[in-house]
């Protein structure tokens, strides 16, 4: 079955406000002029906001751990004399389940 959920890319937040028990976070994307442009809104019940923030914090910790492990692995590996052609390029992508 095809996934029909919309995907929004955001690299910032324009504003956030709370009204009637709902946090409304206006997401932003940096435009060609370097200024933030609104691209969508994330609406979360205030009662669920701590859970969402904790989940994002845990995701960030997992990413940091993965990056540290990759850096340590690269530092331990001896530098090859010539780049082997058969070596796969690192994808930089991984999945985390909260």
UniProtKB/TrEMBL annotation:
Q: Where is this region: Disordered?
A: 71-98
List where Low complexity composition bias occurs.
71-90
Output this protein's name.
Uncharacterized protein
């Amino acid at each position: 079955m095809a996934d029909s959920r919309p995907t929004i890319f955001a690299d910032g937040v324009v504003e956030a406000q709370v009204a009637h028990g709902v946090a409304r976070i206006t997401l932003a994307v940096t435009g060609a002029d370097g200024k933030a442009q609104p691209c969508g809104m994330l609406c979360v019940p205030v009662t669920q906001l701590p859970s969402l923030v904790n989940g994002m914090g845990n995701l960030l910790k997992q990413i940091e751990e993965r990056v540290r492990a990759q850096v340590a692995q690269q530092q331990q590996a001896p530098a090859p004399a010539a780049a082997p052609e058969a070596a796969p390029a690192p994808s930089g992508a991984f999945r985390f389940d909260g």
